[in-house]
Amino acid sequence: MRFVALALLATTAHGASAPALRLRGGATTKSSAVVAESGLTPASRCLSTRGGGVPSGVMSKVDVPLLSYFAFWYLGNYYYNIANKQCLKAAGGAAGFPMTIGVLQLGVGVLYALYMWAAPDSRSVPSVTKDDLVKMLPVGFCAMGAHCFSVFALSAGAVSFGQIVKAAEPAFAAVVSTAVYGKSISTAKWLALIPVIGGVVLASVKELDFAWSALIAACTANLFAAFKANENKKLMETPGLKDRIGSVGNQFALTTILSFLFGLPLLLAREGHKWSEFVSLFRSNSVISTNLFTSGLYFYLYNELATLTIKKTNAVTQSVANTAKRVIVIVGVALVLGESLAPIKLLGCAIGIGGVLLYSLIDKIVYG
Cβ–Cβ contacts within 10 Å for residue 55, how many? Predict the structure, then answer.
């Protein structure tokens, strides 16, 4: 199945940039040692040995693992949006079980994280303390809010519309950073927010699936995401925390576990009275059960890969990559799901996403 292929390929991509594998006794495996000594990734080694292949000078300039991260990040995001929407529609849309589906998607991520810790020679368990976990609570809560409100927004309206509104996240980040965390935003950045907001408004004018609930939920998700980014930055300034967590994968795993735990009481409060109805639908409708599992796995994998990608690139590359991802997801998902792509909506999308790219780069352009 697609999600199995994505999981295996993602693991392979991550391993391609890692050191030679070591067995429990500390010995290096033979195949990984050969790769390490040759200085080639498995992908480039394969290319260079098949009929002459690609010149080694060319391959040495191509970061194959990084390209793999980009590819699987985009694919994961794309398939997540499709599987998530199909699951939500089959379960009744906004009137169905969006909170239940959102929280259970986090639960799938928890199962994957626990598996990665339990599997031999896969991922070391973080050595965080009780105080570390307490400090991580705000990040976990904000991550839960950002995800669950995003799911609700996508249940109430078109995926393309929800993604366009979510592209306006820099506007919320700017307001939260200055008003709550006392950070300063340049005048150029404030001006760059005009096309971002204008694009969202323009895209909303002719939106056939427009719903105020979708707009409000997407904006709330942006607000949670803005708080999460600031809280995460504060968290990672804690002395020694990075060493105790151990890796990017562990950091995302811990955040997902906390998000899931925060989501459970809200699930019970909002949709707990319909739990037996959801269980019945889950058992009888394979569209719900299959897409719930795959969307949860896609969500976890693409977010972890996005974090790995961002850590290996500079700010400009990140900005361009995020912009390209939005365009691919909005257009691709709309075509697959048969959503409207009216010219005015596409124009608003282009202006809004172009504004986001400008916001990301404007300080370098203006101030050098």
Answer: 9
